[in-house]
Amino acid sequence: MRRLHYAWVMAAVTWLVLVTSAGFRATSGVLLVPLQQDLGWSQALIGGAVSVNLVVYGLGAPFAAAIVDRFGMRRVCTIALALVAGAAALSTRMTEPWQLYLLWGLIVGTATGAVSIPLAAIVSGRWFERRRGLVTGILSASNASGQVIFAPALATITTSYGWRAAAGTVAVVAIAIVAPLALLFFRSRPAEIGLLPYGATVPPPPPAPLVNPFSSAIRTLVDVSGRRDFWLLAGGFFICGATTNGLIGTHLISAGHDHGLSEIRSATLLATVGVFDIAGTIASGWLTDRVDPRKLLFMYYGLRGLALLGLNAALNDAGAGLLAFIVFYGLDWVATVPPTVALCRESFGAERVGVVFAWVFGAHQLGAAFAAWGAGASRVWFGSYEPAFLFAGVLGVIAAVLSMLIGKRVMLRPAVTAP
Prior knowledge:
Radius of gyration: 21 Å
Order of helices and strands: HHHHHHHHHHHHHHHHH
Number of helices: 17
Shape: globular
Strand content: under 5%
CATH architecture: Up-down Bundle
CATH topology: Growth Hormone, Chain: A
Number of domains: 1
Distance between the termini: 79 Å
CATH class: Mainly Alpha
CATH superfamily: MFS general substrate transporter like domains
Oligomer: single chain
Structural class: mainly alpha
């Protein structure tokens, strides 16, 4: 038997880290109703804290990617997981809204930004020459896997023992299970252990000289911000975040509660989204190696928008229509990541793909923050999530159109002068 390439060990440990990171972020959606009932905080107030989390998480990702380049994956990810554990443990004692904003908004948002989806681009780009799209899809599916594992489990713990027990569970998992694995197995590049990337026959170019990570992240943003493709990718991913983590990930349990569904059933629906997303995202990675990624994004965003337009009616019925939405939305949830990473690599090069995608991912989280707050505000102002669902559906159709313009030159017809 041929020896297992260490790239697959890196992929497995990265997947586990990303799964738990996604589960930590999903905690806010599970705790929304219990915090409202126990402490009297409104959906808008709690949604504001989730928005802070998502903004810090997203905007911190480019700097985290640059910090990983400077200090290494093992050190950065271990420290980040320790911060998550500390903030989750302290949150069991919180009684004031500012504590929620500080612990779950600022600290957890910053820490999970260091162990987020841009790691998938870094690991697949550095460790894999072959199967890169497939590995990106598998690692991207970790977001859904986190929902599958954590959402129903945390909802059950919350129902049986209270929300503080759920927060304590997050702390224990982060510090006792995941952080030690990152410390033991993470390596930044194959060359550190004398290997080539999986499937490579020649060594990759040497990494760029170590520089200040903050200046590196800013310089990369300045370099790419003059490119039209960057804004098309970022705009599409803004809408992607708004229609997934921000809207459905944060408010589906609360919306189900409005329609008479129990917290555990709503959390199970959210977990079911994750089950189908695992298959959808891995399939998307496989397709990205074979199909124009622009066409894939057009299909994913367009169908997602149409599904959101019918979500409120599906919740009213709570039957086959809702099940169909959950299955379809699951297949589509994070399927956008592999083609987006591929287009970042195509447009801006392999060496910068991690930081560039992190900036694009930052736009994703800004969109998620916008929707997390906006959907909560919609519920307070109109007594319903329906306006938020309809608006998000229209945004999905817009993202589909933007995707087809990536990499296309706009040809302006010259003015015709009268004879």
